[in-house]
Protein 1
Amino acid sequence: MLFLVVALLLLGVVLGAVAHAPLTVSVAAGLVIALWLGIFAVRERHGRRRSTSAH
């Protein structure tokens, strides 16, 4: 429960910062985060395929 409260608090801080940032900065940050999450997803998928075939 505490984790949810902290997550919502951080979300509010981030959304407040985005509301005051210029649109180009917000879009650039969003693209960087999307790229990071995409790379993470590909690495996780690749790692799980490798580890499940070994078992």
Protein 2
Amino acid sequence: MERFHGEIVLPEDASYDDARVVWNGMIEKYPAIIACCSGTADVISAVNFARENDLLVAVRSGGHNVSGSAVCDDGMVIDLAEMNGVWVDPDERTVWAQAGATLGDVDHETQVFGLATPLGVVSDTGVAGLTLGGGIGHLRNKYGLSCDNLTSVGIVTADGEYCTASENENEELFWGLRGGGGTFGIVTGFEFDLHPVGPEVATGLVFYPGDLAVTVLPAFRDYEESAPDELTTLVSMGVFPEEELFPVDAVDKFKIAILGVYADAPGQGETVIEPLRKLGEPLADFSGRIPYTEFQQLFDDDYPDGMRYYWKSLYLASLSDDVIHRSLEWAEAAPSRLSTVDIWPLGGAIADVGHDESAFAGREAPYLLGVEANWEDPRQDGANVEWARDCLDDMRQFSDGSVYLNFPGFYEDSDEMLETTFGDAYDRLVALKNEYDPTNLFSPTQNIEPTTW
């Protein structure tokens, strides 16, 4: 490739196996070429080369990519991991992050100024994929989704052209990138609004014994109905076999974890969080004031490189007693003690954004169901994937069938899933695809197929 300053990795190179491996140990793909880009000029060069040579293109940014779409067989992987710079303007309260940056990279720079933007819940997550898929994180109820705080992007489209998209420039493309996925081009940089958060925050982390679940979860639901938007919570149901956290006789037993963070004054937050610590007799309680960056890293060790992952999701119409009971049954039936079934309360600032202001679907849903199959033994692949799929099939009775596209499994039944999730907005996304990627160069991700293809 002409004028390419980064590293080109080919199958015969010694570094090839390391370069093609992704976070999810289930993914085994063998690209024909990996283009490790040093900047936007390299991205343009790689896109032009792929288009001119009719190569399938997968885009790898800085983080997890549970679906495995960041790598492909036989085509080109455009790898942005080395493009991970972050620049903060504390006066304007904005941050510019390159596409290879992780949540941890952004938090590291913004927290120097006591500022944050809503990102995810694991610091190793990549900013790019998270934001393009919407971005549900720890600050969502107060400040909305990652894509809601996006003010501008730089993007390389399929014709090898670079452009800016914002509310004032290429507005329709900007609409589609806010939750519509990475199928329209390669975003090389993101500008976000920042908000005063931290450096210390009030947090709740309480584990209840599984046999209290039928009382704890309804009590949590009742509490959530009147909780302030400053508080964002998450319920996780599973074993959590951390020997250092629990008494010996409780390590391998089923538990309920309730997590929360308050996005305002810590003293006030401690008062707000206190009821979550008294929903029953806790098995363990790690609530307290901690640095925001530390809170963002709480889950990091639970998701190591190379473990096997398969995640699915559904937006829920409510957290009814039936939803609670079925969720518990599926969580207890997980074949891996590392797996969880999670309930993400939504609403708040997410619902304040108009339905037509971004492509993100799911703003009206009060809850998200996340099903995380996490395991280590390849021989257990079938059992764990089957469990997650069966759980979703059963829980669809409580949903309209739409999903959070950052937890998509492996994009099975992709067309049906996308049409169901985006609903009336789907045709608008197809029109964008027709305009910006009419030959479907960027297809391995959550692909909106063009009608011109």
